[in-house]
Amino acid sequence: LAQISICRDLPNIEVITFSVNGISDLEPLTRCQNLSELYLRKNNITSLNELFYLKGLPRLRVLWLAENPCCGQDPHRYRMTVLRNLPGLQKLDNQAVTEEELSQALVDGVEITAPPAQRNVENGWAESTDSSIAGSTAEPGSELLSSSLEEANKIQEELGMKAVPRDKYSSFSPRETDCNRKKRNNVLNAILLLMKELDVEGLEIIQQTVARRLQAFQKKELQEE
To answer: CATH fold of 5-108, please?
Structure first.
């Protein structure tokens, strides 16, 4: 089985098993709005950008994508990218998804914003990772810092938080490249923006996750000292 165009005529289907085939295009699945479980192990999906077609499936909770070319050589990056784009999953590749993983995916995962046909892809990964996250073209370091700081402070003001001082916001390690600085700024902005959509329960989960992360960093610093 190399193509699944039949799925366009199955809007009410809830479980699909296409494992061990030659499928490479997931676009027909966009019509399956009631889909909750999707099994695609051992197919010919070469690009994780195919996840773009699954992002609009509100009930998808189980996905098995392992043993496809798009999984690449880095299992962690692969899992984080899938979870960043499909945060509603409860199980990925027969392994339960944790709240900690969903939080980490915001940092380590790659956001997919366009289908494969609109992106240059090599070995299953988008070439311009940082520009896809930022949603803009390259920007000089000083202008990037200024715009990111302004946006972050605007978001924090809406949340009733104190503005971030420029000297603290720009206190990156000398070893950090412009690319890393850009990614850090955009991750911060994204997190602050998403916080506005959370209820009390969601904010409590964020608070607990941040506390655990801070403890881990503090423990690591003490060990290095």
So the answer is: 3.80.10
